[in-house]
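Can't paste images in this forum, so I'm doing it all in text. The chain is below; anyone willing to post the predicted structure tokens underneath?
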Amino acid sequence: MSEENKHRVTAAAILPLVGGAANVTSVAHCMTRLRLGLRDRSLVQEEALKAVPAVMGVVEDDTYQIVLGPGTVNRVTPEFEALVEEGRADAPAEPATPAAPAGGADPVTAEELAAQGAALRAERKAKNATPFKLFLRRIANIFVPLIPALIGCGIIAGLNGLLVNLGWLPGITPALAAIASGFMALIAVFVGYNTAKEFGGTPILGGAVASIIVYAKVADVEAFGQHLSPGQGGVLGALAAACLGVYVEKRCRRWVPESVDVLVTPTVTVLVSGLATLFGLMFLAGEVSTWIGEAADWLLAHGGAGAGFLLGGLFLPLVMLGLHQALIPIHTTLIEGSGFTVLLPILAMAGAGQVGAALAIYLRLPRNTSIRTTIKSALWPGFLGVGEPLIYGVSLPLGRPFVTACAGGAFGGAFVGLFNQLGTDVGSTAIGPSGWALFPLLDGNHGLARTIAVYAAGLLVGYVAGFVATYWFGFTKTMLEELNAAPDEPAPAASAPVAAEERVAEKV
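Text version of the structure:
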């Protein structure tokens, strides 16, 4: 089967399981997930969906997210969009009715854990629907579309640095430097465009206002007693400038007569927002960007292992609370300022803890073939930094193993943080990937070999710590008895099914 046919088959398998074309209101994707807007989520056949070979897991949030993994999602999404359009054109019928759930499922199988995971995701979604967290989600929506370019340019920058250090291909390295740096030189424009689009303005006006920040002649402008520098304020300045532009544009649309709107509104929007950007926002955002860089350096230089321990251990709980999205503009600001973010390799240790915990669960539950099968299918994506299948399908529903997995991430983060404190910066030139997929994006201040060695050792520490913590402290005696019951054996009387929340509370 050709690659194109394989991805079309995957898309065709997914579509009826999410209620058919009539149930799909929007289609998008990020690095690893197919994100669907659905009219009625009760029509989703989740267990059948998870059984599709290419599907690694599902996540319920503001959109229904199907984890397909990097690369695959980019190829399946256009096929899925085409099938949706065909379905709507051919037969705009009622969405398919989901199959009735099978009764009498053993409460300790992977299916039961998946049900618990779904309940926890729904609870998390409800808790995350606060104005502040919804605002953070909108900020994330501005930066997530930029990740593929950050990754591509970051890898090229790493390759170019390696060639320069080795003295190879001197005629090619300047061209590679231009290719790698072009996007970062203009990233403020893309941030401005996406900001206006996200907050309901005209995207090109957001880009126009943000482009002022990177214009070379801003060096002739003086604000707060200082001459501005091209790029001063960076992505934070672009974000603020575009937000102001959206506000001005909306006010103009309200008051400017329709007959002159096409002339007046764009002019006033760019003029007012541009002046505010030049004589205020660029300077203020530049100060904030400088402070963020200095704060990150200070944190790791003085906190070291302790800071890494907290960052690595608390990252997954931050993800569960929806607060991790606040880190995206911080990462981008650090990359723009120093060429790499020192925070991402530490946060990536959280995934290493999950992998170690999954290996321990696999060994501790030798008779539970259902959970072991789930782990086997989700483990390799976990090594590559796609952790959702392990988190939502295994560790989080079990409760205690999720906590011990976070402990593994904490120790891995402490290891990398310690080396930062000792003077070896371990950074990433882009955001998005983690696990093994982060290796091509690594950069630091003491050469690529040492940077890779420290990061690899940190992953190993995370694997081992997550494994040991979960193997010895991840299960109570009752949990082991219940979860190790053979499929044809009755579960112990004490393990009668209870609500997912109660089960997790007991196990924690």
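Residues 92-107, 490-508 have pLDDT under 50 and may be disordered. The longest strand covers residues 24-29.
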